[in-house]
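User: I'm putting together notes for a lab meeting next week and I want to include a structural view of one of the chains we've been expressing. I don't have a solved structure, so I'd like a prediction I can at least talk through. The sequence is below, exactly as it appears in our construct file.
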Amino acid sequence: MKKMKKRIFTIAVLFSAAATFAYNPPAGGQNVLRVTSPELLTGAKSAAGGPLFNVTPSSILNNPALPAFNQRNTLDLAGTLFFDSKDDNHSLGGAFELGLIKPTRWCVPSVLIQGVFVPYYDMQLGNSINLTLGYSKDITDTVSIGLTANVGLLWSFGTDWTASAGLGAYYNPGDIAFFKNVRFGAAITNLGKMYSKSEVLGIKAFESQGDWYEDSFSNNFKKLKEDEEADKWPALATFRTGVAASLIDAENFKLGLSLDTAFPTFQNVVLDAGVNILIAKVFKISSAWEFDLREFKEDAKNLLPSVGVSFKFVFKSKDDSYLSRNGWGQSEVTASAAWQRMYKNVDAVSAGLLIDLGLEDTQPPEIMMWNE
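Assistant: Thanks for the context. Below is the predicted structure for the 372-residue chain, given as structure tokens.
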């Protein structure tokens, strides 16, 4: 009983300490690593693997436990372009990612390299390069756990660095009532040193400044006041929970939904909802919508949903090729694209390729009692 009281007290102290930190991220700062691919833009940041459970190397950003059941080597290459209709300098923003999932006998490691370059007033993220390493493992046929380690370097609006860790868990109980393939996920990320010593504009500056300030800022990036500078972003100790399931699971038509709730620094509430429609097992339509309470309150609104499409096809290699000799004679390639209007004037257009080497093993092992 005494040990339980001590644990409750410790947790309460940690929550109270988190609540004392300043909360002033830049617009989009909480999702700075979730703009580098179509899957991230339209995946609703789901800790449960998305509406129809689609796992990519970047899934470890939402929940480190998600890749644990991956059977194939997965390569990911994607990029995003940003356009600001009110930027007088006509600056072009961008982002990219390179990712890999490589299952082993003991665990499923992942690696993700990302670059983000966004200079706009409405979404000022600066320039950064980030490396995320992931480790996930299945505990049972329905439960997995995982952890991540992330390091990053920020420059252009001051210089800073980040180093953090994340933990996650995933549970798939199967069908519940008329819901198919029900999944639950939970993760806590950003446990470490966040970006803080930078001159990036925080969301608190939006509500107090008018159009004159925005025009002045776009023409000449002025020196920020102390209370306008972003602080500790992405938010320290962000806890996320998610649930996802299929409403329709027919042979050639699937419809899935996901819903996530996040609590950045336990001082904000963020809701994410996603929908996927899969037709004939190859063509998918995706959309995601987010409501960030603090951003909305500070007039840094980002309420339009993202929209994306993807097409999957089988790639066959020659019999004497390197891929065939390693058992990857047939591989699945998914080409995807997405769009979203972000923060008043910024448009994001993203495209990517996801390659799953080999075909997924859907047949259970055959056991023979006698050698006939």
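A couple of points you could mention at the meeting. DSSP finds six helices and 14 strands in the chain. The radius of gyration is 22 Å.

User: Perfect, that's what I needed.
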